[in-house]
């Protein structure tokens, strides 16, 4: 079909929002339109294309085969237009917004992000941290660093790092019991966050599947980086990803007393909305971070 000046671009915007929300009512709320106006715009687009885009059922709408083909392309087109316009203005939308866990941000990203900015001097960067999984449709974040299995619907995922873990502590604390030579030695010391699910996984990998830490004093610091700080201060044994703490080991602030590493099936991933995979600032960050991490793999579309 040849696109003319009369092609209903507003109807495309309504279609994109409805396909994303899977609801005429929610699309209307987002766009400030009545449900009737949303329905009219979708019908106008269907008439223009000569294709039915939605199956309308009581209290539910679903995309037809034609709608499923069209929706991701239209979402991508609007994302590219928004990014092009934002790049001309000094607005938050013109900034690369990265969301990451506090530990990854503090122990890896903050140390290397300067090289990305040197390679992209015209691009502003904003880093936000939390332990929560963000909803890209409800936040300004362009990309996120997540831990998981890489199978988030609607997102592209690129493997970055394997998330294995092992107990670490200060050498001074280890010396109070004559050193940590076996997994059982750890039970002589205070365990930081004994309720962490990593502990039973690690003890099982170390040959002690029956270890029960439930009776120990509870402590929960909310982020691995904070637990590492407590371990450096000699407050107990933390279970950490050792590659994040090589500097602390080199400076003698932490030790990894045992070689056993465990893995819970989750890893670090770079993720972003499928519809925005070709946005220039996202492409630039994806190229940079996958080059910086030698084990990073091609994208895994969800």
User: Briefly, what CATH class of the largest domain?
Assistant: Alpha Beta
Describe the sheet with the most strands: 7 strands, mixed
What fraction, in percent, of the residue positions are helical?
25-40%
What is the C-alpha radius of gyration, as a whole number of Å? Answer: 25 Å
Report the strand count: 9
Total of helices: 10
The name of the CATH topology of the largest domain is D-Maltodextrin-Binding Protein, domain 2
Q: H/E element string?
A: HHHEEHEHEEEHHHEHEHE
| CATH homolog superfamily of the largest domain | Periplasmic binding protein-like II
**Strand share of the residues?**
15-25%
Q: Can you describe what's shown?
A:
The protein is α+β, with helices and mostly antiparallel strands. It has 3 domains: 9-86, Arc Repressor Mutant, subunit A, CATH 1.10.10; 92-162 and 265-301, Periplasmic binding protein-like II (D-Maltodextrin-Binding Protein, domain 2, 3-Layer(aba) Sandwich); 164-263, Periplasmic binding protein-like II (D-Maltodextrin-Binding Protein, domain 2, 3-Layer(aba) Sandwich). The protein contains 10 helices and 9 strands. The chain has helices spanning 9-21, 24-31, 35-49, 65-86, 102-119, 171-175, 198-205, 224-232, 246-250, 280-292; strands at 54-57, 60-63, 96-100, 125-129, 143-148, 155-168, 238-240, 262-273, 299-301. The strands form 2 sheets. Strands 3, 4, 5, 6, 7, 8 and 9 form a 7-stranded mixed beta sheet that branches. A hairpin with a 2-residue loop joins strand 1 (54-57) and strand 2 (60-63). It is elongated. The two termini are 30 Å apart.
């Amino acid at each position: 079909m040849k696109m003319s000046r009369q092609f209903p671009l507003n109807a495309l915007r309504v279609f994109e929002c409805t396909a994303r929300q899977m609801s005429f009512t929610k699309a209307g709320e987002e766009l400030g339109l009545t449900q009737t106006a949303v329905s009219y715009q979708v019908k106008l687009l269907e008439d223009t294309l000569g294709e039915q885009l939605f199956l309308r059922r009581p209290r539910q709408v679903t995309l037809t085969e034609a709608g499923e083909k069209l929706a991701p392309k239209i979402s991508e087109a609007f994302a590219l237009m928004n990014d092009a316009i934002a790049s001309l203005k000094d607005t938050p939308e013109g900034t690369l917004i990265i969301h990451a866990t506090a530990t990854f941000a503090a122990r890896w990203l903050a140390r290397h992000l300067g090289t990305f900015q040197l390679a992209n001097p015209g691009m502003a960067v904003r880093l936000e941290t939390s332990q929560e999984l963000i909803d890209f449709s409800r936040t300004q974040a362009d990309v996120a660093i997540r831990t998981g299995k890489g199978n988030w619907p609607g997102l592209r995922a690129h493997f970055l790092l394997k998330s294995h873990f092992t107990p670490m502590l200060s050498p001074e604390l280890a010396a109070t019991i004559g050193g940590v030579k076996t997994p059982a030695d750890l039970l002589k010391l205070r365990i930081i966050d004994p309720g962490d699910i990593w502990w039973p996984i690690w003890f099982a990998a170390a040959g002690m599947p029956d270890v029960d830490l439930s009776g120990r004093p509870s402590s929960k610091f909310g982020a691995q980086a904070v637990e590492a700080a407590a371990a450096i201060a000699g407050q107990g044994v933390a279970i950490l990803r050792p590659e994040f703490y090589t500097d602390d080991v080199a400076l003698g602030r932490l030790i990894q007393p045992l070689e056993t590493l465990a893995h819970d099936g989750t890893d670090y991933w770079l993720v972003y909305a499928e519809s925005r995979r070709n946005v220039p600032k996202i492409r630039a960050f994806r190229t940079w971070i996958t080059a910086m991490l030698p084990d990073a793999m091609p994208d895994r579309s969800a």
